[in-house]
Predict the 3D structure of the following.
Amino acid sequence: MDITPDNEFIKNSNVPGPTKEEVRCLVMCKSQVSKADVVVDVGCGTGGLTLEFAKRAKKVYAIDKNPEALKTTFKNLQKHGLDDGVDLIEADGTEVLDNLPPFDVLMVGGSGGKMDYLLKRGYKKLKSGGRIVVTSILLETPSEATMVMKDLGMEVDVVGVSISKGKISARGTMMVARNPITIVSAKKALKN
Amino acid sequence: MDITPDNEFIKNSNVPGPTKEEVRCLVMCKSQVSKADVVVDVGCGTGGLTLEFAKRAKKVYAIDKNPEALKTTFKNLQKHGLDDGVDLIEADGTEVLDNLPPFDVLMVGGSGGKMDYLLKRGYKKLKSGGRIVVTSILLETPSEATMVMKDLGMEVDVVGVSISKGKISARGTMMVARNPITIVSAKKALKN
Amino acid sequence: MDITPDNEFIKNSNVPGPTKEEVRCLVMCKSQVSKADVVVDVGCGTGGLTLEFAKRAKKVYAIDKNPEALKTTFKNLQKHGLDDGVDLIEADGTEVLDNLPPFDVLMVGGSGGKMDYLLKRGYKKLKSGGRIVVTSILLETPSEATMVMKDLGMEVDVVGVSISKGKISARGTMMVARNPITIVSAKKALKN
Amino acid sequence: MDITPDNEFIKNSNVPGPTKEEVRCLVMCKSQVSKADVVVDVGCGTGGLTLEFAKRAKKVYAIDKNPEALKTTFKNLQKHGLDDGVDLIEADGTEVLDNLPPFDVLMVGGSGGKMDYLLKRGYKKLKSGGRIVVTSILLETPSEATMVMKDLGMEVDVVGVSISKGKISARGTMMVARNPITIVSAKKALKN
Ligand SMILES: Nc1ncnc2c1ncn2[C@@H]1O[C@H](CSCC[C@H](N)C(=O)O)[C@@H](O)[C@H]1O
Ligand SMILES: Nc1ncnc2c1ncn2[C@@H]1O[C@H](CSCC[C@H](N)C(=O)O)[C@@H](O)[C@H]1O
Ligand SMILES: Nc1ncnc2c1ncn2[C@@H]1O[C@H](CSCC[C@H](N)C(=O)O)[C@@H](O)[C@H]1O
Ligand SMILES: Nc1ncnc2c1ncn2[C@@H]1O[C@H](CSCC[C@H](N)C(=O)O)[C@@H](O)[C@H]1O
């Protein structure tokens, strides 16, 4: 299970991300991504999650409404030799989900206040057995995402994650906090 | 990245574990385990980590001084069809490391006050490029493990992890805390 | 600054609380309670916060819709000689706020899905310079309380609190997590 | 319970602190400081804790080995009209504890690797019924402080504190983490 270190990402001051290493690791587990999967990453930002999905999936659609996010994501994919198999789409996620082929994983890293629409629309295109994963640093987003997923009849997994990292110096190991993140995820029932 | 749900483990009231799902996920990332690896899991307990390693490594040596831990670990491996490729060894980790073949990952989930000895001894048998991972719920263990790894000349990664899980009811989503865990890890330099 | 230890409270299995020691301490600070204050504690539960307010305020109105909560709160006040100056009111908070005299602190420890109504009604009876404090273990409540307070034109302080407590044994100090709590508070502007 | 807001402190880039509002609040509770108390604050830094003790105690001795810390502490006390009743001492805490009168509270906010000596020396001068409080952002300090207090026969309270603060914007409430702090405290037994 190889996760790219945080400091190997090219950053852009106008683009949020990359999602920190430990959270990328947890998102990979929650998404249950595997080699046969088609993944849609709405709000790809710096490409932190896109890159991890690119290592593990068959196909990734990375979407962002900010053109600089797509440039940065592309640079990071290219730097790590992972741009093959990733389509970069400059658009609002709400406008483009309908035109994509059915997918196995819907990742939402940014919604711009359109969570309800994104999740409901995405759910329709999600294959049965597929997973939705939402990450957020906002207080409001996790409860909204949870509510929508419950409305869709899904069994929701909500995980609050607080990570601190040791900064080692002569004085000792100072524990530096990362901002808390909430990961909300759910699986679409298998048809029977 | 498939992590076995917490509730799929057989438990034994005399054996700690399994390490919770999210922490197992993070340990898999920190260990960088892959199909070519030999893993030693000192203090296998319920087999939570052993089972995840068994899915991803070539060979796992699971060690515990408590015979009930080995029985429980075996039951869990068997339940998930993963007992092939795992050797179960009833012993104190300090007494058995020397007799094992060189390994790629040393996992320490329990040390019984012998961290210094375990890590120094383990380091000798660790292949170059190999990883050591220590998890602990104790206040004292992370600083001890960090100190020993620093003494061994390793660059140490210390991560404090606080996870809470949503319990969904009619009233809302109650966030239930898991005990905080510290993961200390390091990589043995590649020979040049 | 004297905070009553958690284990000195009489508990009742049908009543939540008491709010843990460290959170009671933080609520006292956020409420800025002082000897001249009238405090309303909606959802007094076991009386954890009521008792701390009773030590520091002029007058406390403790409200709960559960009669067992009021009995438990009374027992705890009596045990600590603090029942003078506390009025216990069995009612839904929404039905009784209007009949109370103006107050300096509105504490909401339980709302039963009526946060919006409670805060808006409470705000009217809150003296200028008065404080509202909401504590919650739910994912949904903090964002709702924040939204209502913002709508009321208040400057809102949101604090996520994760506490772990050391359990000392021969093996070391095991850090045991308390469930995370969010404290949302705000001050009503002084008239000018 | 009035705690000075973080942004009311004068800062100095060469001096750590002030201890954040919520942690100052908790330290006041753990120290059980009251109007009759003599407090010694070793490692006063910016004066964050000194100032809170100055509001609540009879006398505070604020000690720091860094002359800039004492200047900054003095400025903050003066700004808030609290410099009366505080003695500022430029010294290593280990060199000056012996010359102070007996005290009720020993606060250690910085030890410079001399925790063992500071606590043992301080314990001797601590009145019976007095409290020791240690705060730290380091991984190593809490376990060392716990060990020394246990050796001194004290019953130790260890509290891990992770605080995040909401930053409210048009997009929502972003939760920003403060670095985790551990508070170790204990009370000296009353003579009988
Ligand atoms: N409705 C929407 N459609 C497409 N992109 C959106 C969106 N709302 C927000 N975004 C984008 O979501 C991103 C969130 S930041 C995501 C960071 C990313 N997970 C990483 O690891 O690098 C921003 O770049 C923002 O432009
Ligand atoms: N020196 C030592 N050698 C071998 N086992 C040890 C040991 N010290 C402690 N242990 C074992 O370490 C275990 C820690 S509990 C480990 C839980 C495990 N990671 C899981 O996920 O299930 C206990 O079973 C204990 O018996
Ligand atoms: N609308 C409402 N009016 C009055 N009480 C309410 C209410 N909604 C919930 N409650 C009460 O709120 C309480 C929440 S538990 C509060 C615990 C308390 N702070 C302590 O420290 O002990 C419960 O007892 C519940 O009965
Ligand atoms: N042995 C020692 N004696 C005196 N001061 C010390 C010391 N070791 C460290 N310090 C001081 O401890 C301080 C720690 S920072 C303390 C911040 C303070 N509690 C606040 O709220 O502002 C530093 O200023 C450092 O100079």
